[in-house]
User: What shape does this take?
Amino acid sequence: MNHSKLKPYFVLVVVLSLIGFTDAMYLSAVHYLDGAPGCGEQGGCDEVASSEYSVMFGFPIALFGLLFYLTVFALSLYWFDKRNPAVPQWILYIVSPAFLFSMWLVYLMLFVIQAICWWCVLSASTTTIIFLSTVFVVLKGLHKQ
Assistant: This one.
């Protein structure tokens, strides 16, 4: 199997999962420290972070993101160690619902809360790129070559 075709994909996923993990960690810390996420003059981070939609089952949404990014990061490292060709499909199983949920949160942010949280946009962007690149790898069958 030619692993060189998958290496750029996994490097991208590792970098994006670290960015997403850092973002989610920041938002989780802000939540538990009762702070307001810094968003600059044009942001609505506080409105989004303090909305009723920012918590699910008593936990901040960012905490679920933290677990998601940590899992994707760990699976990517597992691929670098074992070169298991099933890993992209495993990531697809995890990232697909995360992507759909992320799009739901973007909808809520834009059309219900009517404020933009740039930290949330960063998370949605990283999830979207991980999703699209994983779909590409799986549909092209690169993980099976």
